[in-house]
Design a protein that fits this description.
The complex is a heterodimer of chains A (251) and B (350). With 251 residues, chain A is mostly beta strands. Chain A folds into two domains: 209 residues, Immunoglobulin-like (Sandwich), CATH 2.60.40; 36 residues. In chain A, strands 3, 4, 6, 7, 9, 12, 13, 15 and 16 form a nine-stranded mixed β-sheet that branches. With 350 residues, chain B is mainly alpha-helical. Chain B folds into two domains: 227 residues, no CATH class; 92 residues, no CATH class. A four-stranded antiparallel β-sheet of chain B has the order 3-2-4-5. Classes of the chains: A mainly beta (251), B mainly alpha (350). At the A-B interface, strand 17 and helix 2 of A face strand 1 and helix 11 of B. Strand 17 of chain A pairs antiparallel with strand 1 of chain B, so a sheet runs across the interface. The structure holds iron/sulfur cluster (3 copies).
């Protein structure tokens, strides 16, 4: 597919947008056709919006001072093709009164791929976990519609939406190497693409996000259960030893 | 049935409702943290539960100490720490004022879970230890302050200042039994783990799992074992004087010989019997370990000696008639046993 999509400018640290700092983040708009007019805007977590300009194919995002998810949006129209690229970016700052669900509910027109939901604040997309996305056209769900999911590491899968326009996707654990420690492995990129034709017009949409390795490489559930069991047994042992204290001698 | 009509039964229904609401309530309030009711609840409803309706104040407090103290000290601008800290505390207090320590006795999922374990223990006929000795109670009481001072504020502060590695930024969450319990209730085993990535994470995760197992087992024999060391109980104790709900007592000389209230108290508050006897006016006796469960009032046989008041209006008062009914109901309830594991007690036919 020739869609446009966002990806972090190569800097493994600043890619996920989940750091605690307020440093500028840079993203690249991939799949750009040189001469085509592209508008880029940034919808803040409080739904205010600001226009951005591309430097080459990149934007540099400064902190808006507002907390929570923002949406980085690029829109392109070339003849009868309408392209839309979205990436949701977490920003740290002062709390706002809007919920990410309101940001996701914005109808940007045309074809859209909407996370339902996004990972909760301070959580992340993780491999081996299941996530849902909805494909909509002009705000209405598209049933039995195709969607291509690819990753930076080369995995790909074609999925079809259900009657309500949802797909369920398990992000593959396809990292070339996993360092068994939280935040140590450079994140992967999941890229979702879809297209739709209506009344002679073609609509293309993309959604991208960073994902991190599942914790299963360094967290063991069975060991955890074993320790709980040891705690239980120890507890039952103490229970037998606990001295009974009775204030009133005769009962 | 008669025995259904008592405060404990009403409380159980409220607890069950709150448990379901807090553990699964995202369906109602929304999924994102921004949708939650307060984000600083005075009960151990867990932020790690993906379906919660709200989460406890201890997680923002630890995070603020961990992420804000260091930068605040470095920049010399302490407002960087105080602003978020004050926001959390004010939110916490706005909720807390309404119910005071009843957030423990009526709302907390972990408090309810321990009570359910106790019921199960009793129904299985396991050994029952109603009270700990005075010495043991005195030794356990300061632990909650250490948990609050050390795990919620101290270690995250030291981490923020660079004295400890990053793993120690939210140590209470890492050992909190509510994290494992509530997530298991949502069908996820994600929080039940041993983390082998670093020695610190390993120690903390093992401690957390062990404490969870210990809490379950001990709750079957001893009432509210974890509550006795819970940092939120300590935080409640700090602010209990501003709560609108109170336990009050206007004791008489008869209290010296009675003490059924202290025996009924799941938190082993023996001062219930000894304080405020022979006073002119009812006095606040919402003690640091109280959870405002109201059991002491139920089991006080003397008219109006113990009361739960809201805005100083009595809402539930001790009375001899109620006491008789309540005692009978308890006896009947205690008789119902499924199995009698504890052979040194008389087994009663179901
Ligand atoms: S782990 Fe415990 S302290 Fe931390 S958010 Fe959950 S309930 Fe609160
Ligand atoms: S003391 Fe018990 S009831 Fe209160 S917050 Fe802690 S665990 Fe919950
Ligand atoms: S003092 Fe009374 S209300 Fe408080 S915990 Fe004990 S029994 Fe419950």
């Amino acid at each position: 597919m020739a869609d446009i999509y966002w990806q972090p400018v190569n800097n493994p640290k600043g890619s996920g947008g989940h750091g605690h700092g307020r440093m500028a983040k840079a993203f690249q708009l991939m799949g750009l056709k040189g001469s085509t007019d592209t508008s880029v805007f940034y919808i803040h977590s409080d739904l205010e919006s600001s226009d951005l300009s591309l430097h080459g194919d990149a934007v540099h995002l400064k902190s808006t001072g507002k907390n929570n998810y923002h949406a980085l949006v690029a829109r392109q129209q070339q003849d009868d093709i309408h392209r839309l690229a979205i990436r949701y970016i977490y920003n740290n700052g002062r709390p706002v009164n809007t919920s990410p669900s309101e940001l996701l509910a914005l109808n940007l027109g045309g074809l859209q791929i909407i996370p339902s939901p996004l990972p909760r604040e301070h959580w992340k997309y993780k491999s081996k976990s299941l996530y849902r996305f909805q494909v909509t056209f002009e705000g209405k769900p598209l049933a039995e519609h195709g969607l291509l999911a690819t990753t930076r590491f080369g995995s790909n899968e074609i999925l079809h939406t259900d009657q309500s326009g949802f797909i369920e996707l398990v992000i593959p654990e396809d990292f070339p190497e996993i360092i068994p420690l939280k935040r140590a492995t450079p994140p992967g990129e999941i890229q979702l693409f879809s297209s739709y034709s209506s009344e002679g017009q073609v609509y293309e949409a993309s959604l991208t996000a960073a994902y991190h390795p599942s914790d299963s490489s360094w967290k063991s559930v069975s060991l955890g259960a074993l320790v709980v069991l040891i705690g239980l047994i120890f507890g039952f042992y103490i229970n037998r030893k606990l001295p009974e204290h009775n204030r009133r001698k005769a009962k | 049935m008669m025995w259904l009509k008592n405060l404990t039964v009403v409380r159980r229904f409220v607890q069950l409702f709150m448990f379901v609401f807090l553990v699964y309530g995202s369906v109602v309030v929304g999924f994102y943290a921004a949708d939650k009711i307060s984000g600083a609840l005075p009960s151990l409803s867990c932020a790690y539960d993906s379906m919660n309706a709200d989460y406890c104040a201890l997680i923002p407090l630890q995070h603020q100490m961990h992420h804000r103290l260091g930068p605040a000290v470095d920049s010399g601008d302490m407002m960087k720490l105080f602003m978020p800290l004050v926001t959390t505390l004010v939110t916490f207090l706005m909720m807390f004022v309404l119910l005071n320590k009843a957030f423990c006795g009526w709302i907390c999922p972990l408090g309810f879970f321990q009570e359910v374990m106790q019921l199960i223990g009793q129904k299985l006929g396991l050994r029952k230890v109603d009270s700990l000795s005075h010495g043991a109670v005195d030794k356990v009481r300061p632990v909650k302050w250490l948990m609050l001072g050390g795990l919620v504020f101290g270690l995250p502060a030291l981490t923020s200042l660079g004295f400890l590695s990053d793993e120690w930024g939210d140590p209470f969450c890492q050992i909190c039994p509510s994290r494992i319990m509530t997530t298991l209730f949502t069908g996820s085993d994600e929080q039940l783990f041993v983390d082998t990535s670093t020695p610190s994470y390993m120690v903390l995760s093992i401690l957390g799992d062990f404490l969870f197992g210990l809490t379950i087992a001990m709750a079957m024999t001893l009432r509210q074992p974890f509550c006795r060391i819970c940092p939120l109980l300590a935080m409640h104790a700090l602010f209990r004087k501003i709560g609108l709900a109170r336990l009050v007592k206007k004791g008489t000389s008869r209290c010296d010989k009675c003490g059924i209230c202290a025996e009924a108290c799941p938190m082993d508050i023996r001062e219930l019997q000894t304080d405020h006897n022979a006073v002119e006016k009812a006095k606040d006796i919402t003690l640091p370990d109280c959870t405002l469960c109201g059991r002491c009032v139920e089991f006080c046989p003397d008219k109006d000696v113990l009361q739960i008041r809201y805005l100083n209006v009595p809402v539930f008062s001790a009375s001899p008639q109620y006491f008789k009914r309540r005692k009978k109901a308890q006896k009947e309830w205690d008789k119902v046993k499924l199995i009698g594991f504890n052979t040194d007690k008389t087994k009663v036919k179901p």
